[in-house]
Amino acid sequence: MPLKVDPKDRKLLMGAACVFVLLVAVAVLFGGESATKAEIPSSYSTASGGAKAAYLLLSQAGYKVERWESPLDQLPQAMGKTLILAGPQEAPTRDERERLKAFLSEGGRVIATGMFAGTFLPENESVPDVLGGMTWKKASALSPSAITRAAPEIVLAPQARWQSYSAAYPLYGDGEHTLVVKYPYGRGEVLWWAAATPLTNAGLKEPGNMEFFLACMGGAKGPILWDEYIHGYRPTLGSSIAHSPVKWLVLQLLLLALAVVATFSRRSGPICKPASEVRLSPLEFVHTLGGLYEHAGTASVAVDICYQRFRYWLTRRLGVASNISVSDLEVAVRDRWSFVDDHFVGILRRCESAKNDPYLHPPAALQLVQELDQYAVRLKLFQGVRKEKG
After folding, report:
1. pTM score of the predicted model
2. Which residues make Cβ contacts (< 8 Å) with residue 326, sequence separation at least 6?
3. Right CATH for 37-235 from 3.40.50.620, 3.40.50.880, 3.40.50.170, 3.40.50.300
């Protein structure tokens, strides 16, 4: 049986498909080859901001370097190990910070770079500097050390700065701010860089950066752990997808699927006949009658009808003649029911005069009808009528 698609549904489906194809085309056109290269200092990335060249350099130089793709709270015993936190983009958890402190106390070394790297460290005096990271700057040695002897000057794009009053040992600065520091913690040592530029594929070629990078390793004999967990590389497939651009492709596919479901669900769902009002219902009669009075401009007729009904039940309950005057009617109500209201007789007189007024305004007529209804409630005129009908 061929599938029949409503023309409106077909237009909606074709529109969603066109938007999806357009998004894919734009991603391919403007992304190109660089779209597959992450601009983060990852040892997997070959982009200019990646760090695969530095990772291979350490491996070829004889260092025992390996990638770490688990949370920091699962770090192994230090035993001379060096941990590289190259440009983390997320703040650590409490457990990760506590394990990192223990790692340093056990004698481990930590090289932390970038704007948010200070949040991982046990002692942090770094201040973010977003504008400073837009340009590369030369940083000169501030204090004598094995590192500054190997590279008197380095080049980096500082994303942060270290407070000058800190007790950390300053290594490099640009004349205004301290950009590289080190300090001991327990039996370990912390090296903080203002940016990961010296170890990136593009920055490694700048004068002094390679020497600086290798000197920071300090002739490490133990393993060097390059943290890739902070870059989104996770041990499970789901975790890796959640921290990669693939999730946006999945989102587009979900939007397309929702468009398809919305297209056909209206036709395949159960058909429910909407409830219709009975044309003989009292409410429809009231609306129809009110519309006629409004169209004819005879507000006085509505007042006359309500007033005559009010007088009929009032005189019937009092047992008086239906043609009794307003004054005598007010006296009868006061004497028999002890009902005293100076405004009552005024309303009755206004209704007497309004029923013969062809120019009565609808708001004034509405007010008179409402006043009569309130007095009917107070005098309990229609209770018996409602009980009889019930």
Report:
1. 0.56
2. 345, 348, 349, 352
3. 3.40.50.880
